Amino acid sequence: xxxxxxxxxxxxxxxxxxxxxxxxxxxxxxxxxxxxxxxxxxxxxxxxxxxxxxxxxxxxxxxxxxxxxxxxxxxxxxxxxxxxxxxxxxxxxxxxxxxxxxxxxxxxxxxxxxxxxxxxxxxxxxxxxxxxxxxxxxxxxxxxxxxxxxxxxxxxxxxxxxxxxxxxxxxxxxxxxxxxxxxxxxxxxx
Length: 190
Description:
Elements: H1 2-18, E1 23-32, E2 46-55, H2 61-130, H3 135-170
Antiparallel strand pairs: 1-2
């Protein structure tokens, strides 16, 4: 829309500059004339008139200059608005990409932490069965593992939201997933 405003303002500059030049128009009339109805459509009642007209406001160059200046000012304002819109879009895209990148790194670190917590939980279960770890300590290891799983789920949800923001900022869009239809239960063949 901002780009179209610039084009419209450029057209207004052209219109204002066009006022410097003379305008030539052609005019004409065609008709039938007659004193009575019988001779109205005869060949000698046919009349026509035409000619050119010249219009030029040679003494209004100051007014034309101001109109051109006003149109150029409108174009400059539209250009400034366009630049503002483009910079805002670039800033939005850069911010979205940055947030997505940071969230992606966070998810990868949580994946590593999840792997380590799963290993700790497996070792804690083995130690508890062997009698070298108390139930409370084993439950604490399991609580930490569940806490990391929750953080991982929240981080993945945030990463998905950030990915959508990137798509929106870049104007890429997305399509809805195709609807899945339930599989009908098949009766056994007799």
